[in-house]
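Can't paste images in this forum, so I'm doing it all in text. The chain is below; anyone willing to post the predicted structure tokens underneath?
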Amino acid sequence: MCGIVGVIAKNELGKEWAKYIPAATAALKQRGPDAQNYFSGDDAELGHCRLTIIDLSESANQPMHDDELVTIYNGEIFNFKEIRKKLEEDRVPFKTQSDTEVLLKLYKMYGEKMLDHLNGFFAFAIYDKKNKSCFVARDRFGVKPLFYFENENCFLFASELKSLLQFPIPREIDHESLYEYLQLNYIPAPNTIFRNVKKLLPGHFLHFQNGTVECKRYYLLDESSEKQIAVTNYSEAKNRLFELLNDAVRLRLISDVPLGAFLSGGIDSSIVCGLASRHTQHLKTFSIGYREHEFFDETKYARLVSKHFNTEHTVFSLTRSDLHESLFEVLNYFDEPFGDSSALPVYILSQHTRKHVKVSLSGDGADELFGGYLKHLAEFRARNQQLPELSAAFLSPLWKLIPKSRNSSLSNLARKAQRYSDGIKLNLHDRYWKWCSVADEEQVTALLQLHHEETQYAQRKNYLTRYIGSKKDLNDVLLNDVSMVLPDDMLSKIDYMSMAASLEVRTPFLDYRVAEFAFSIPASFKIDRRHRKKIVHDAFRDFLPPELRNRRKQGFEIPLHSFLTRELKPILHNYVSDSFILEQKIFDLSAIRNLLEQLYSSNPNDSAARMWGLLVFQHWWKQWMS
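Text version of the structure:
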């Protein structure tokens, strides 16, 4: 795993920007602490930070050259040995044992079509010294990030926004992005918090030549899954899923450094750990729990799974004080507002895990592919209403009277019931957006002094919900989650926080073969009135400990409300103080006061999630905009 940054000049003024490459590379050092190197060409300057995982020798450092090409690369190609073997049969010579060299030689043979051969996650650039062109690509599902900027003088790209901010690019807040952020607590691609900086979409590449940047899509999950042989027999589908995921895990165990796995105690990470233990001895597994909040703790299940598969298990037991101690390390790493509060425990888990291993497997991606979230069950019931759903809508006035929060089972149930009864009144697109959000459009509009552009926002929202209604079953919602929620929330969180700890995290469920299989089967194999991720549970029913079969799904959450109203109270009040709000001229002071009042009330609802997103933004603003 690594960090990459590059500047390609269009003219003499653009060449002046090459002087910022050392600082831009240094900004990525946590992604690659083992080596930092540069390439200088007539009109190109490339920087690379390396985290050594495969072929630890200096000969595998980057930028890597041959006669005509030079590459910088962030990621892993898990099938690189098979690709190398085929290239060697065509008498292609190799000097290293790295997957980077395979990437370079594959591009030389196939050009942009080389992307079809890769099974892995990546963001890379290949510069052609002869024709002064540059090819930049991102993996199919957006596991690895890539930001870019273009003006009349140059083209810039980097693994992280903070690297680009070492260049003198304008820092103009995109109002539509801020409006989306305050609803979702993250900013969906291709946009960023800055108007003139973009994220390369998953499954896309950029080609720079003759001063022009062209963006193309090379992969679409929907089209690729339709080409698969449909499996309509449920028993056969279960067996196929087991085989595919087993091989995906096997491929992701390739490493020249110590490797382990996250083990939360949920079904997804338990499956990954169980399959990994079939292919490697003495697998190291890691989990975290909360001493003060049993409601958020699932470490007893992690221990049970560890015992079942005979792994070497380590539990990190946290208090809110531990969360507090890591707070500013997390907030300082964010170079774009990112309000998913579970980033904090992911960082702490990554930090502790990094003391033992350099690579970890995780179960991320399963929920989006196979329908694991409560909103998926809610959507199924909204489309297939029976008496309980009709009753929920009828009882909407009652839910409004019951205090709602995420702090206990009863208050959380009331919160979910109110959210459901509000959502079923909406059309498919608006309901999807609402159930992805922590705040309504009306709430965010009231919060902001800055006005977004309605037409542009509507166009963005239509694009971000483009798959809703495209299928005859619930696969439309799952496909939309894979295109938006997965890369821009879940995978961004994993990448941000694992890279902050210099840890590589691999996601077997996002092997493209598993994903294509997931969308070649009907949604009825995944979800019904009572079950989420049905085929995942059934395919691994006899493989996992029986205690996991009927346990409820538990998100990777923190006791956010008590954290904000106790340990973080002084920090929060500083960030939403009257003087700061008036100085910023971004937020409406009375709306901020109302949100703060709700947070401390007996009926906080989702105010903690909203306030956390606001706190993150305020810290980001002080760090990058003051």
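The two ends are 32 Å apart (CA to CA). The chain has three domains: 2-219, 233-369+496-548, 559-626.
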